[in-house]
């Protein structure tokens, strides 16, 4: 990859776009293949996490998931600015959650059902 800008998501997207171009892959014509690849990478991440013995390998698999997720977005016509916008929207939404509004249930943080407003 070229120069790091300090914006890791944009750097990764730029690298991913260049990777596909280098192999003459047009993401917009490959949605199903990109989804299949994404699912394979998620499986590999889960397997690495379950093994839990090699933190570097887990991080590598997570990075592969990020790359393939960006590929799915590109194949769906979504550009990096839209992804970045939603990353910040999700972060803001998560920052607004508290123990008063949400509870951990079955390993997931869920909205409390009986919230009085």
Q: State the domain count.
A: 1
Query: How many β strands by DSSP?
Result: 2
What sequence of helices (H) and strands (E) makes up the elements?
Answer: HHHHEE
CATH homologous superfamily identity: MazG-like
CATH architecture: Orthogonal Bundle
Q: Nearest-angstrom radius of gyration? A: 17 Å
What is the helix tally? 4
How would the global form be characterised?
globular
Overall pLDDT: 93
User: What name does CATH use for the topology?
Assistant: Helix Hairpins
CATH class assignment: Mainly Alpha
Largest pleated sheet: 2 strands, antiparallel
| Helix/strand/pairing category | mainly alpha
Gap from first CA to last CA = 50 Å
In the sheet with the most strands, the strands line up as 1-2
Q: Which percent range fits the helix content?
A: 55-70%
Low-confidence stretches: none
Strand content: 5-15%
Considering the chains and any ligands shown, give keywords for the structure.
single chain; 117 residues; mainly alpha; Helix Hairpins; two-stranded antiparallel ribbon; 7% strand
What does this protein look like?
The protein has 117 residues and is mostly helical. It has a single domain, classed as MazG-like (Helix Hairpins, Orthogonal Bundle), CATH 1.10.287. Helix content is 63%, strand content 7%. A two-stranded antiparallel ribbon has the order 1-2. Strand 1 and strand 2 form a beta hairpin. Helix 1 crosses helix 3 and helix 2 runs antiparallel to helix 3.
């Amino acid at each position: 990859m070229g120069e790091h800008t300090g914006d890791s998501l944009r750097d990764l997207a730029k690298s991913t776009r260049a990777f596909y171009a280098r192999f003459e892959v047009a993401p917009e014509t490959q949605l199903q293949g990109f989804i299949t690849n994404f699912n394979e990478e998620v499986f590999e991440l889960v397997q690495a996490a379950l093994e839990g013995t090699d933190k570097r390998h887990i991080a590598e698999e997570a990075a592969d998931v990020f790359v393939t997720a960006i590929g799915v977005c590109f194949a769906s016509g979504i550009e990096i600015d839209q992804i970045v916008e939603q990353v910040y929207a999700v972060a803001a939404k998560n920052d607004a959650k508290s123990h008063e509004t949400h509870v951990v249930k079955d390993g997931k943080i869920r909205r409390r059902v009986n919230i009085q407003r």
